[in-house]
Amino acid sequence: MKPDLFEAPDYYNLDELLTEEHKMIRDAARSWVKRDVSPIIEQAAQDAKFPESIIPGLASIGAFGPYIPEEYGGAGLDQISYGLIMQEIERGDSGVRSTASVQSSLVMYPIWKYGSEEHRKKFLPKLASGEFMGSFGLTEPDHGSNPGGMTTNFKDAGDGENIILNGAKLWISNSPFCDVAVVWAKNEEGRIHGVIVERGMEGFSTPETHNKWSLRASATGELIFQDVKVPKSNILPGRSGLGAPLSCLDSARFGIAWGAIGAAMDCYDTALRYAKERIQFGKPIAAFQLQQKKLAEMITEITKAQLLAWRLGVLREEGKATSAQISMAKRNNVEMAVKIAREARQILGGMGITGEYSIMRHMMNLESVITYEGTHDIHLLITGLDITGENAFK
Amino acid sequence: MKPDLFEAPDYYNLDELLTEEHKMIRDAARSWVKRDVSPIIEQAAQDAKFPESIIPGLASIGAFGPYIPEEYGGAGLDQISYGLIMQEIERGDSGVRSTASVQSSLVMYPIWKYGSEEHRKKFLPKLASGEFMGSFGLTEPDHGSNPGGMTTNFKDAGDGENIILNGAKLWISNSPFCDVAVVWAKNEEGRIHGVIVERGMEGFSTPETHNKWSLRASATGELIFQDVKVPKSNILPGRSGLGAPLSCLDSARFGIAWGAIGAAMDCYDTALRYAKERIQFGKPIAAFQLQQKKLAEMITEITKAQLLAWRLGVLREEGKATSAQISMAKRNNVEMAVKIAREARQILGGMGITGEYSIMRHMMNLESVITYEGTHDIHLLITGLDITGENAFK
Amino acid sequence: MKPDLFEAPDYYNLDELLTEEHKMIRDAARSWVKRDVSPIIEQAAQDAKFPESIIPGLASIGAFGPYIPEEYGGAGLDQISYGLIMQEIERGDSGVRSTASVQSSLVMYPIWKYGSEEHRKKFLPKLASGEFMGSFGLTEPDHGSNPGGMTTNFKDAGDGENIILNGAKLWISNSPFCDVAVVWAKNEEGRIHGVIVERGMEGFSTPETHNKWSLRASATGELIFQDVKVPKSNILPGRSGLGAPLSCLDSARFGIAWGAIGAAMDCYDTALRYAKERIQFGKPIAAFQLQQKKLAEMITEITKAQLLAWRLGVLREEGKATSAQISMAKRNNVEMAVKIAREARQILGGMGITGEYSIMRHMMNLESVITYEGTHDIHLLITGLDITGENAFK
Amino acid sequence: MKPDLFEAPDYYNLDELLTEEHKMIRDAARSWVKRDVSPIIEQAAQDAKFPESIIPGLASIGAFGPYIPEEYGGAGLDQISYGLIMQEIERGDSGVRSTASVQSSLVMYPIWKYGSEEHRKKFLPKLASGEFMGSFGLTEPDHGSNPGGMTTNFKDAGDGENIILNGAKLWISNSPFCDVAVVWAKNEEGRIHGVIVERGMEGFSTPETHNKWSLRASATGELIFQDVKVPKSNILPGRSGLGAPLSCLDSARFGIAWGAIGAAMDCYDTALRYAKERIQFGKPIAAFQLQQKKLAEMITEITKAQLLAWRLGVLREEGKATSAQISMAKRNNVEMAVKIAREARQILGGMGITGEYSIMRHMMNLESVITYEGTHDIHLLITGLDITGENAFK
């Protein structure tokens, strides 16, 4: 018996599809979340403050670059391990998982894939250990769902060594405390490149976004570039064009598809437990048909989401998962989690609106998760395009 | 042109069903909310603090006892006026509307209906002006949906003049700052009576409930009675039994059915405006089918909810509305508002999670509204009982 | 007590909004449906055969031209009466209601509104009595949702008296037995005109559409025009352009919004009765929460649909109902009926798939009703356009 | 290229989870359905007539006892093969799949599992070849969802050799033409036993149920026993109690979970093809967001259902699938298919109600499938009981 673990539903014995290593990694993440995140996260959300004290723990469970090779400080794990770590973190809080997702898939991933060997050596180990925190600058105020329309740009500084970066990015997780930012901007020909911007560069500021009602335990902000001089050597050499940041989103969305299961599991587990203990009209409310309907449909949806994530993990590990397949899982699993959080909250009645239980915090967090890295509708249209061959974005 | 008013959808020309007085009362409430509530309410919610400064304003628009006769300080209005005032306040915030609902329907109403003439004269004018704030003690920790199971009780103090009250009530709006509480408790024969408890009575305390994620701009707390000595004359003489507090709930639920329309209107109005202004892929997102689907279904649902509320108002004014009819409108209209808030939030994308727009605050607030004064499922079973003749509560 | 009437839900006492005449007309229609339609309609549907024997009855209850002035043989009733008659007929069968809708709103209405006095005198009395049956030719195979794209056309015959009509219309109710058809076709300038085509004109044929799984008790077919010589005097002089047939659709859709309530009522009434009688696990299934959820939500939706139809009736009677308002009611009420039919069918378990009960027939019929006279999505986009000002059809 | 196959969606490359043999078996079934079932099935449904001519074909693809050992004439296949065969048949028609399900899981399975070696040798080969057709008598008129309440019973005939069987069974697939029936009845102690009743036994009749609107291409009827003398040797010796017939239902429900995917695939495939070809407003309707929403959500749901069925197949093959796990897949997958059929029908507009396309027939068929072998609500309560430990049936 492992008294320090959450109950995690596994209605279709999916653990049998995992290796021993997978389970070890998952259980380690789960224990850490239970011990170091759960006790403090509600207050962090109430205070709207990212709990920086958990950064070393995140590093220790491999949450920063799970699949980055060990030579660069990463955990060197497979995609399913990455997914499982995200799942466990999001049982705790979607904001904490977001911090890890950004660090791993939006900062370390492009540096690993598209950076020079020098970039890799300079940045990846520090990002893996949490010594450096990173952010990812793609979204702009007027181009949320259409990143190709970005206006952030750079031109040659004329000094042979630098570029001059101008523009602004919005809705950037980790921005307020990031040490480095992987920023996507257009060169003078309008071609998109990734640029590593470092804190301290003149003209680079990261104002925090306040009064969020979602992901309050993570920090969100802007990235503002006013004639920032950046060394040309900070441009990622490996790939240009919109495909580069989109490939990062693929990796992040894959993690979200797993993470959302964690949030859903925690809501389900909490609601089930509550329903079994809460007595009304002389019996546990879990004995009433209307509550069983909610709970039975939750576990059904979780089971399907788990299968989707598992299958996608196998495909991705084999290098075969398409962006459209990832979109389907991101869209499905986050919506699943949102719906479960809402139903779970109702099961708790009045208790469901307090910070004594995690459900409403999950519910609020998931409103960001269903929107970021491709809104619910954008993923729909990605699938639609994939199956019909017709572009309906415009 | 009235530049200070919100846009309010009226797709089926329902204003034609209102009198000039109705519209005047509504517009006055609307203007006040726009001027005095909207600018401050978001910060109050962020700070989780009831803005006491608005109490006089609430009194001025007739929100404290709209239908209480003028001789007792009330506004002496009809039921539709009452509904319209609640609608307008909830455009601002469900928490503020809750404060008004409690004061009107759960404190002033029972004193008016079941109190002695002395009670009426002593308490109603002060409650109407907001000099006194009241709370309503029915719900107990173990008896949320089944108030008849309450254990709060009183016995004769043996001094010929007093009773001794013991017990605890939970989820009590206005409790932390209430001057008086109408408390429902069982006498020694187990019969439920209403008792007016006044702040300052020994053994009476009102600890606040913290860390709510809903109705943060209103104050919620407990009512705790430890051997509180209350004059026998504070017992409401007019009616005993569970029917008495339930009749108060009828009045409050009627107000909620209207109030929820206000929250929904504000979400719809905000989302529509945003969708018309927000450009993506070269056109306003309001021009995309997926967004039109959300918006068109919102206005359809709002229109039906308005008709339901209007018809119920006529019936109630005629003294013919049954509890079951009220349950239907409360259940339908609050769920309508919850769904609209959720969809509206998605239309705003990332902006939807910030305090810059009211939508997510409404969404969070409505989680309480769908739960209190009879949960969504309890109202379902009330309708179910009414139409089938079969009791499925147990 | 009126033993020959169905039970009709009226949860919000809406009968009080009707006049005595309204109720008389409704009850007459109801009695006739109960007596003359219900006993034979199931077999007609099984046999996929329109029961022509009911034509005189339809005429007798005013179903052919309820609002056409008495001088032309119509019933001279108001719009709410028209709605109530449609409601009662559709309690029996949507196919029978369709027959009446077409006759009234798509044949008699345009002749009355846009025909010459001669047309009115020649056709309306016979159509009102059922001596003549009519059909309406607008939809074409390749232009279902976009009637303006029609290719049916006419040109001058060159004989000074006639036009030559060519083209084909599809999904035409009443076509196989119609005596006259109001056909919409483009003249040589591409302007749409209404033309009265009469059975027997050479080159005019009306092949029946077979193997329908919906509206099997009504006849559907094509209208085919191969060089049909039609007197110029058969052109409706009063209005040309797409607005003319669209105004007919407004009238028909208004009737459908009411009719759908009838189908829903019959499903609800049947399911409620069954649930109260059907014993499982020792009690009526109406006593189970899962069944109460279905039933309670049905009556809620019916009540709202009734209010919507009533309000629309008042507006239409006052000449103020817009096409967009009618679209909302058509879309809402038909979807409401479809959903209720589906849920009601489930309540009946295995019995729900047989012809012993009307529910599955209603469910199948409503699949046509949700599609014709503007599909569910087209009405959505009409509302969307109305509220956003953005055209999202294309 | 295999021109004779349907298009079958496989969005998550699930074919990789199948063996070559699985795919061969599936493709054989698919080809046969395409060639021998699709061309005739619509007319059979219109005529409400089971097409007996397809019986040999069903036998040839292994549809009668796919997992029954070859020594008894079965196909000796694994559970996933069984599932795939059911899936392919139901692409054609749920009624045909029902015929096969009953024969395999409700007649051959209990004879194989609980019959004597003599029973097996006498009946199984003939059932496998289709020479004999079987039916399964469990459901009674007053005990649909509660089979334990059955009243069909037998007593000792007193002649040392026979029992006397009395009672009636309802909703029995294949009944009108069955050669044998496996009937569940109570002995004098009230213990349930399986009894093989053979056509020709005196007092045994099988009247057909007419006027069904669902599964019209399969035959349904009653089994009536009036003092039927049955040899004692026809009692299944291997197991008594309600668990015996329930284990048969497990096997049948497993097949339904797969079969429903087939119906859904056919609806999706048809709707997608139609949407790509149907031009409105100048482009294929597949290019409109509202249609993409329908299609994208269909393929998402199909993919999850496939994963659920696959995982359940593995578990069942390993002998580890619980009844509750099977209930989840039956409930989920049939509801998935019902919803997809309904949405697909809407995509086809008017064409969707005709027999020219298979969709509405599927939609009607699935109304039976969602009800039989455990209604949608019963499976919900099975899951509810499993996860909460609370029985909410009563």
TrEMBL record, chains A, B, C, D:
Enzyme Commission numbers on file: 1.3.8.6
Q: Name one Pfam family in it.
A: Acyl-CoA_dh_N
Identify the metabolic or biological route this protein is part of: Amino-acid metabolism; tryptophan metabolism; Amino-acid metabolism; lysine degradation
Keyword entries, A-Z: FAD, Flavoprotein, Oxidoreductase, Transit peptide
Catalytic EC class: oxidoreductase
Q: Determine if Ribosomal protein is one of this entry's keywords.
A: no
Is Transit peptide set as a keyword in this record? yes
Q: Which InterPro entries match?
A: Acyl-CoA_DH_CS (IPR006089), Acyl-CoA_Oxase/DH_mid-dom (IPR006091), Acyl-CoA_Oxase/DH_mid-dom_sf (IPR046373), AcylCo_DH-like_C (IPR036250), AcylCo_DH/oxidase_C (IPR009075), AcylCoA_DH/ox_N (IPR013786), AcylCoA_DH/ox_N_sf (IPR037069), AcylCoA_DH/oxidase_NM_dom_sf (IPR009100)
What GO annotations for molecular function exist for this entry? fatty-acyl-CoA binding; flavin adenine dinucleotide binding; glutaryl-CoA dehydrogenase activity
The record's section on Gene3D superfamilies has: Acyl-CoA dehydrogenase/oxidase, N-terminal domain, Butyryl-CoA Dehydrogenase, subunit A, domain 2, Butyryl-CoA Dehydrogenase, subunit A, domain 3
Q: Which GO terms describe its biological process?
A: fatty acid beta-oxidation using acyl-CoA dehydrogenase; fatty-acyl-CoA biosynthetic process
Q: Which residues form a coiled coil?
A: none
The cofactors named for this UniProt entry are: FAD
Reactions catalysed according to its record: glutaryl-CoA + oxidized [electron-transfer flavoprotein] + 2 H(+) = (2E)-butenoyl-CoA + reduced [electron-transfer flavoprotein] + CO2
Q: Which family does it belong to?
A: Belongs to the acyl-CoA dehydrogenase family.
| Xref: PANTHER family | GLUTARYL-COA DEHYDROGENASE, MITOCHONDRIAL (PTHR42807)
* Protein name listed in UniProt: glutaryl-CoA dehydrogenase (ETF)
